[in-house]
Specification:
Strand content of chain B: 25-35%
CATH architecture of the largest domain in chain A: Orthogonal Bundle
Shape of chain A: flat
Radius of gyration of chain B: 27 Å
Oligomer: heterodimer
CATH superfamily of the largest domain in chain A: MetI-like
Distance between the termini of chain B: 59 Å
Number of helices of chain B: 15
Shape of chain B: flat
Helix content of chain B: 25-40%
Chain lengths: 306, 555
């Protein structure tokens, strides 16, 4: 197992390296550069060139990459061109907000979605099942941008219950969380329902029932545990995605998280900051992947890593 | 039965949706007829051959005014805000608090003016009034003398004096410092300290734009500005002191009780960046913020109907033109083609219908809010017939095709306006392909040959030099415009130290440019702000600055 871990971590490192090259090149190949944004709109071409030189943008691309790599090896991700502060500091400043939202949302999604999905599968045709399934279809179809704004219009402007924006109080967490929870809840519920339904008709379940086990025991020890693997995969990936920051929800609610930071960094071509953010996202995904694979070993006794 | 249950569930859903739509405020639209008296010149035949034109006042029902009343109480009574705190939400996100660094509007117009002061300020009529400098004079063509205000301290206790001014000027133009607004002092050769409260500014050539530019140059303290964290911990002489900045989340400032211009009447200001229009408007509706900028035109009516809000519209220093590239052989290098395009576009309809009356039809290549605006230019009418004739005269009876680059989202309603423009031009045979692009991809295209480019220019210092010099001088004009008369006038205006003379010269420049029409002027940009009625004594300004020191809050 530990050998497996070491191998995986090495692969992770290589993947990150490759990712850094792709991100680096992609940002510089895209039209527009930070110098354009930093000089006034009235700047002459000469002033623009001066700014480019000052920022080190006129050096050949491999030289810029070498500088970047050297910095990373020293634990320094560079300085944001616009904020003029260390990229690491800025990212770490904004990470907690996204983390809080991701944790809250995912906890609710799992705590509510899995039981609902199981109930839906075992009590097909009941009230709760029908309503839950309908909410699931709608929930998955709703674009998050639209949902966020509708929530604001109904609950903030219309009813005055929750604040419209920001992270200023506990009640500020509610609407952004709901925007993130609803589509995911729908998805997890449907996943669990179909997974459980599939497993429910397997032979070993019939055997367990025939053995005389309590229905609840049949359910949890045999059905659900086997059905969980695809659900776990999907849930981990959803969580990883949320950790990268839902850009839409963060922009609409003016939530000070990583998502909004990344998108603004890319728009303004703040190379170091954008690269730092995207690399962080890549790291999160790769780690999530690793943890996900490790969790299979915990759930499924047939899975063993060497 | 499953079917029955499904039916009931659907009905339940329908009920929920209905409830939601009742809760969300929808305005009721009432059409009211407004009778307007219109002057009509009637030709009346009096005797057999004598035809007399008689002016008759004809009463004509011209417009239907749409009055909007909300059907539901729009928002539950907005909670009174904290007694001595002003909360403001702006569209732009702050990048730096350093009063000298940024060229963003939110910095130049808001935070710079809160934390720091300039030597010279503008009053409401755009005359120069003392700031940190109490008086000034020109010693000779190349030298200006400024007498500084005594007894002023920076927030950290450092004294304000001539040394600080010298340091501030030098810091701004230092290439290592990479300030976007360095060009403001490009005409300055050196700064000399004559005595503790007197500064001599030496310019390379006679520089008439010095005073307007100085209204944007913040004075910073020597020691504090050299610290690494100055951009996150600003110090100045301004009416507000820095308290806390959480990037992208909020900026907190408190009143400076020792401010030389009189302490602000409220204790704190909190600025929230809210980029999303819908959210920002919702925040001002619920009373979570007191002031919000960038009201979308379609929300104006419903915001005006809110009992606790005022909606302020102001002309601004921004003016949108379609820039035409004149550096290569093309149909539009012929001025008749450009004039034809101008007359083919119904700019009145654009301003009234798409912008809902916010802003105005452009009557020059700069905004009518600028003091140097020339009001006597003959407007180009909307006349597609004449446009088509002019186009044919220029040799393009069947029109031509071209493309228009638009930096998406930068200017109000750009997508709708450029679509409308393309439709208007299609009527005279000009096929315009509108290319809406992400901003960072669009801006670089202005520095290489293009066909047409949709852009404006917010003239922050309200001065003619900033408005006209770079765009219309052949060496710096992106459009490659070259008119010797304009060159002569612009240089004369730049080197004249008499502000009245400069204004007159800039008016002449506009007259020449209006005849050549290198840029097809579309509309002046208007700014719309939503303000809670508890905020007193504050109005938005055409120069886009947000000056809060004289405002106060009263519940």
């Amino acid at each position: 197992m530990s050998l497996y871990l070491v191998r995986r971590l090495m692969q992770l490192f290589v993947a990150l390296l490759g990712m850094s090259i792709i991100v680096f090149v992609a940002m510089r190949v895209a039209p527009g550069d930070p110098a354009e944004r930093m000089v006034s709109p009235l700047a002459t071409d000469q002033e623009l060139q001066q700014m480019r030189e000052a920022l080190g943008l006129n050096k050949p691309i491999y030289e810029q990459y070498a500088t970047f790599l050297r910095g990373v090896l020293h634990g320094n991700l560079g300085k944001s061109l616009f904020y003029n502060e260390s990229v690491l500091t800025i990212v770490l400043e904004r990470l907690p907000a996204t983390l809080q939202l991701a944790l809250i949302s995912m906890t609710v999604v799992v705590a509510v979605g899995i039981p609902l999905g199981i109930y839906s599968a075992t009590h097909g045709g009941s009230w709760l099942d029908i309503i839950a399934r309908m909410m699931a279809y709608i929930g998955q179809a709703m674009p998050s941008f639209w949902l966020a704004i509708v929530l604001i219009l109904v609950f903030s402007v219309g009813l005055g219950i929750f604040p419209t924006f920001g992270r200023r109080s506990l009640s500020c967490f509610v609407l952004p969380s709901i925007s993130l929870i609803l589509p995911r809840l729908a998805r997890v519920m449907r996943f669990v329902r179909s997974a459980v339904l599939e497993v429910m008709h397997e032979d070993y379940v019939r055997t367990a029932r025939a053995k005389g086990l309590l229905e609840r025991s049949v359910l949890y020890r045999h059905t659900v545990r086997n059905a969980l693997i695809p659900v776990v995969t999907d849930t981990w990936l959803q969580f990883a995605w949320l950790l990268g920051g839902s850009m839409i929800v963060e922009v609409v609610f003016a939530w000070p998280g990583i998502g909004a930071l990344t998108i603004n960094a890319i728009y303004s071509r703040d190379y170091p900051l954008a690269e730092g953010c995207v690399m962080l996202l890549a790291l999160i995904f790769l780690l999530a992947n690793l943890l996900m694979d490790l969790s299979y070993a915990a759930i499924d006794p047939r899975v063993r890593y060497r | 039965m499953k079917g029955k249950k499904l039916l009931v569930a659907v009905a339940l859903l329908g009920l929920v949706v209905t409830v939601i739509s009742c809760v969300v405020p929808t305005p009721e639209v009432i059409e009211k007829e407004v009778v307007v008296e219109k002057l009509v010149v009637e030709t009346v035949v009096v005797e057999k051959e004598v035809v007399v034109e008689k002016e008759v006042v004809e009463t004509v029902v011209v417009e239907k005014e749409v009055v909007v009343t909300p059907t539901v109480a729009p928002t539950p009574a907005a909670p009174a805000g904290p007694a001595d705190t002003l909360r403001i939400a702006l569209r732009e996100t702050l990048l730096s608090l350093d009063p000298q660094k940024e060229f963003q509007i939110v910095s130049l117009g808001f935070t710079n003016k809160a934390f720091a002061d300039c030597l010279v300020n503008y009053d409401d009529e755009y005359n120069f009034v003392p700031g940190l400098a109490v008086s000034w004079r020109t010693v000779d063509d190349l030298t200006w003398e400024f007498k500084l205000r005594e007894g002023v301290k920076f927030h950290n206790g450092e004294p304000f004096n001539a040394e600080a001014v010298k340091h501030s000027f030098e810091r701004l133009v230092d290439p290592d410092y990479k300030a976007g607004s360095a060009f403001l002092l490009a005409g300055v050769e050196s700064v000399e300290v004559k005595d503790e409260y007197t500064v001599l500014v030496h310019t390379k050539e006679p520089f008439g734009a010095l005073l307007p530019n100085l209204t944007l140059v913040s004075i910073v303290p020597i020691e504090a500005s050299q610290r690494d964290d100055f951009a996150t911990n600003p110090v100045g002489t301004g009416p507000f002191r820095f308290v806390e900045w959480r990037k992208g989340e909020r900026l907190v400032m408190e009143a400076n009780p020792e401010y030389w211009g009189g302490a602000p009447k409220f204790k704190r200001v909190i600025y929230y960046p809210i980029a999303e229009d819908a959210t920002r408007m919702a925040a001002v509706r619920t009373g979570e913020v007191d002031i919000a900028d960038g009201v979308p035109p379609e929300e104006i009516r419903s915001l005006e109907a809110e009992p606790h809000l005022d909606v302020f519209k102001t002309a601004s220093n921004d003016n949108i033109c379609i820039r035409t590239y004149l550096g290569e052989e093309a149909p539009w290098t012929d001025p008749r083609v450009r004039k034809a395009m101008m007359m083919a576009i119904d700019r009145e309809a654009i301003v009234n219908e798409i912008l809902q009356g916010v802003g105005a039809v452009a009557r020059s290549v700069l905004s009518s809010a600028l003091p140097v605006f020339n009001p006597n230019l003959e407007p180009y009418p909307y006349d597609p017939g004449r446009a088509k004739a002019l186009l044919a005269e220029a040799g393009y009876p069947d029109g031509f095709s071209a493309n228009l680059v638009v930096p998406s989202g930068f200017y109000p309603k750009d997508a709708e306006i450029t679509q409308a423009i393309a439709a208007y031009l299609q009527q005279i045979g000009v096929s315009l392909e509108v290319r809406l692009m992400e901003q960072s991809s669009a801006w670089p295209l202005r520095r290489v040959p293009y066909d047409f480019f949709y852009s404006g220019a917010a003239i922050i210092n309200m001065d003619g030099d900033m408005a006209l010099y770079r765009d219309y001088m052949p060496e710096t004009s992106r459009e490659k415009y070259n008119n010797p008369e304009v060159v002569r006038l612009l240089n004369a205006a730049r080197s004249s130290l008499d502000q009245d003379e400069r204004r007159e010269l800039y008016r002449q420049v506009q007259a020449v440019i209006w005849e050549d029409l290198p840029n097809i002027a579309i509309h002046d940009v208007g700014d719309v702000w939503a303000v809670n009625k508890r905020v007193k004594n504050w109005r938005p300004r055409p120069d886009k600055t947000v000056i809060l020191k004289d405002a106060f809050v009263e519940d």
